[in-house]
Amino acid sequence: MLKAAIEKIQEMSKPMIQNVEGRVFAISAESIDEVRPTLDRPSTLSLNSLDALVKMGAKIHVSGRIAVVTGVRSLSGASVAATDLRGGAAMVLAGLGAQGKTEVRQISHIDRGYESIETVLQGVGARITRVE
């Protein structure tokens, strides 16, 4: 289901998602991945977003402009806040793959790039609900 959800996010996205799905896969795989943002575009995930993913159990070490992501067996649900579009999308995807309930607050950031994201993800079997 997570793979189908990521494919739907890719279909919905404008050029702004820039490899968020790869970061979520790196977190949930038993591998090591380096995130090296280039100077001509913003970082793929903000530090606030990385902190939220760490709260869910991700192993991420940041040094300057490099984040080293070490995969873990599973993530845990948590209450997190979206502070930007790509980071918020990463939190939603990580929450879908996490054990337990994940609540993503401040979803207005996500809504800027993904209209009715929950409806699209429900279409691929995600158990996701928008709470007003």
Note the run of SSEs as H and E.
HHEHEEEHEHH
Report the β-strand fraction as a percent range.
15-25%
Number of strands: 5
The radius of gyration computed from the alpha-carbon positions, rounded to a whole number of angstroms, is 14 Å
Q: Helix/strand/pairing class, anyone?
A: alpha+beta
Mean pLDDT across residues: 76
Helix amount: 25-40%
Largest sheet: 3 strands, antiparallel
Distance between the termini: 25 Å
**Which overall shape is indicated by the principal axes computed on the Cα atoms?**
globular
List low-confidence stretches. 14-18, 38-42
Given the structure, what is the number of helices?
A: 6
Strand order of the largest sheet: 1-3-2
Q: How is this structure best described in words?
A:
It is built from 6 helices and 5 strands, in the order ααβαβββαβαα. It has helices at residues 2-12, 20-28, 47-55, 85-97, 108-111, 117-122, and strands spanning 32-35, 59-63, 66-70, 79-81, 103-105. Strand 4, helix 4 and strand 5 (103-105) form a beta-alpha-beta unit. It is globular. Helix content is 39%, strand content 15%. With 132 residues, it is an alpha+beta fold. 36% of the residues are buried. Mean pLDDT is 76; it is low at 14-18 and 38-42. The longest helix is centred in the C-terminal third of the chain and has 13 residues, at 85-97. Helix 3 runs parallel beside helix 4. The strands form 2 sheets. A 3-stranded antiparallel beta sheet has the order 1-3-2, covered by helices on one side. It has a two-stranded parallel sheet with strand order 4-5.
